[in-house]
Automatic annotation (TrEMBL):
The lineage of its organism: Eukaryota, Metazoa, Chordata, Craniata, Vertebrata. It comes from Dicentrarchus labrax. Residues 566-575 have a biased composition (Polar residues). The gene is ppp6r2a. Residues 553-575 are annotated as: Disordered. Belongs to the SAPS family. PANTHER family: SERINE_THREONINE-PROTEIN PHOSPHATASE 6 REGULATORY SUBUNIT 2, SIT4 YEAST -ASSOCIATING PROTEIN-RELATED. This is Protein phosphatase 6 regulatory subunit 2. GO terms for cellular component: cytosol; nucleus.
Length: 575
């Protein structure tokens, strides 16, 4: 039966290549031409590496398309050509880097009068940058022979692609001796001085901004490479010039010479601030260990922005977040930074916004709102993305089992478990009743059988017990004045550990998130608030306990009869 089906299919590209008169444009019209190229389709690669094809590809990325073409299709072929040239296929890299005539065609792009077309400039920069990384010696030798190369790049520095090209020359050249040779060449060409000269009151603001950013990136890249460099390696000559008194004096002179402008002051100050940056070590010591790469303020703010965008329920935003796999990345960060409650809260808001989106029944009818159906379908795609691509259920189960293993070995409960509990409950609640109940039910049914079984056991047992513990009543009068003589107590304190239950880590994490979200405390301020709140709570509880002891019968000496055993208490704690 198996042999009845011919599972081998010939691609349409192979069919086209069977024709003797096939053209490059016909092949580039095919949707899978890039995929076939990266898959090392030998017939296709042999065709593309022919002289006339390579010349046409280079011409496409360096020549302005006809203006009479439709805007959306003007740069279709240049874009495909760039992707083919940078597909990291050795036969194309060898051809492009080894043929000086092709490199000359590329180089002529720089000889145009400014401004360059931004898209073509990006195609050019990406292609040259790929060659710098893959055919380093050939390309560097070619560029060094061009006396005016640095001048032409700086002539077009208003295009950010030229800034990227300079940074590739500084950071992407290997091995180290060759990189050092390139740095000396750039220093001989007075790159730093020329960039500094562009930060001048009489220069175009865009050129000033890009020159300033390039200098800042050179400083950071050079310092990072210096930290990784062996002791016997030579220092970076570009960094040495930038840090010299002469260079700083020249920068200040350009900033304030002649008629002062805000742009030159801002851009010059940016370089000075970068020079003054203190270089921290690659690891940060925290109370829970060494944090190799902090989440950072920028990523936290982006997470807040994504959460706010999701709450708008705009279809275009939902579609773009799916395309970019934004939720997948946020969940990666959620589990990687298990002690950053500020991030956990934002991810929880994102999941809530996706799961609690109003259903089509709660919206106006399609007749009055023809876009309603489209919005619902796009949002349904986001829900499917959360469960299929992001594998929300599998991540919850894996994280929970990993945490249980850590605790069983005597480790500390992870700091994101409270938020993970809330996210899990959101999924369960929407399975029972919610705007996307039917869809989530179907998505759960699509899970592999073993995963579905793990999820059902988790919901019925683990999550139910966790919710029970998290909803234990706070200290009550009944509990405090219980006179049961049957309690088996190892210490004079009640064995319900009500103080611990009242301040379970689940609730503390919610306090953390809410305090920060509402009041905007920074880390140090928040820790002070928490410390004061915990101290006040502890003092109140102690007073209540002492009052209990005062009310007890006088003949009972609890301190004499019972031995305090803090070790036992510590082991019995859930955190």
């Amino acid at each position: 039966m198996f042999w009845k089906f011919d599972l081998h299919t010939t691609s349409h590209i192979d069919q086209l290549l069977d024709r003797e008169d096939v053209t490059l444009r016909e092949l580039m019209e095919e949707d899978d031409v890039l995929q076939e190229c990266k898959a090392q389709n030998r017939r296709l690669l042999l065709f593309l590496s022919q002289d006339h094809c390579m010349q046409e590809l280079v011409s496409l990325i360096t020549t302005e398309p006809p203006a009479d073409l439709e805007e959306r299709s003007r740069f279709k072929f240049p874009n495909i050509a760039c992707e083919l040239l940078t597909s990291d296929v050795s036969i194309i890299n060898d051809k492009l880097g080894g043929e000086e005539s092709l490199l000359e065609m590329l180089y002529r792009f720089l000889e145009q009068d400014p401004p360059l077309n931004p898209l073509l400039a990006s195609f050019f920069s990406k292609t040259i940058g790929n060659l710098i990384a893959r055919k380093t010696e050939q390309v560097i030798t070619f560029l060094k022979k061009k006396e005016g190369f640095i001048g032409l790049v700086l002539k077009h520095i208003d295009a950010s692609a030229m800034m990227d090209l300079l940074l590739r020359l500084i950071s992407c050249v290997e091995p180290a001796p060759l990189r050092q040779e390139v740095l000396h060449w750039l220093n001989e060409e007075k790159l730093v001085q020329r960039l500094t000269e562009l930060i001048h009151t009489g220069k175009d603001e865009e050129r000033q901004s890009n020159a300033s950013q390039t200098l800042c990136d050179i400083i950071r890249l050079s310092r990072d490479q210096a930290n990784q460099m062996q002791e016997n390696m030579e220092a970076d000559p570009l960094l040495a010039v930038l840090e010299s008194q002469e260079s700083v004096a020249g920068l200040l002179k350009n900033m304030f010479e002649g008629e002062r402008s805000e742009a030159s002051i801002v851009n010059g100050t940016q370089v000075l601030l970068t020079l003054l940056e203190t270089r921290r070590s690659g690891a940060i010591l925290t109370t829970v260990g060494v944090l190799e790469q902090p989440l950072g303020n920028a990523r936290l703010h982006v997470a807040r922005l994504v959460a706010a965008l999701l709450q708008t329920s705009a279809p275009s935003i939902c579609q773009e977040l799916c395309n970019l796999s934004t939720m997948d990345l946020l969940l990666d960060l959620f589990f990687k930074y298990s002690w950053n409650n500020f991030l956990h809260f934002q991810v929880e808001l994102c999941v809530a916004a996706i799961l609690n989106h109003p259903s089509s029944e709660e919206r106006p009818s399609p007749a009055s709102n023809p876009e309603g159906e489209g919005e619902t379908s796009i949002h349904n795609a986001l829900v499917a993305h959360l469960f299929q691509k992001c594998q929300l259920v599998q991540r919850i189960l894996d994280a929970w089992e990993e945490n249980d293993k850590i605790q069983a070995e005597g480790g500390t409960r992870r700091g994101n478990m409270g938020h993970l509990t809330r996210i899990s409950n959101m999924v369960v609640q929407n399975l029972e009743k919610g705007p996307v109940q039917a869809q989530i039910t179907d998505l759960i049914k699509e899970l592999p059988e073993d995963c579905r079984g793990r999820w059902e056991s988790f919901v019925d047992e683990t999550l139910r017990e966790t919710n029970r513990r998290n909803t234990v009543e706070l200290v009550s009068t009944h509990n405090m004045h219980s006179s049961s003589e049957d309690d088996d107590m190892e210490s004079p304190f009640p064995n319900d550990l009500s103080l611990q239950q009242a301040f379970s880590d689940y609730q503390i994490q919610q306090m953390t998130a809410n305090f920060v979200d509402q009041f905007g405390f920074n880390d140090e301020e928040f820790m002070c608030v928490c410390a004061q709140a915990n101290a006040a709570a502890f003092e109140a509880c102690c007073k209540e306990r002492i009052r209990q002891f005062d009310d007890a019968e006088e003949e009972e000496d609890i301190w004499e009869e019972k031995e305090m055993n803090y070790a036992t208490q510590a082991k019995s704690r859930t955190r």
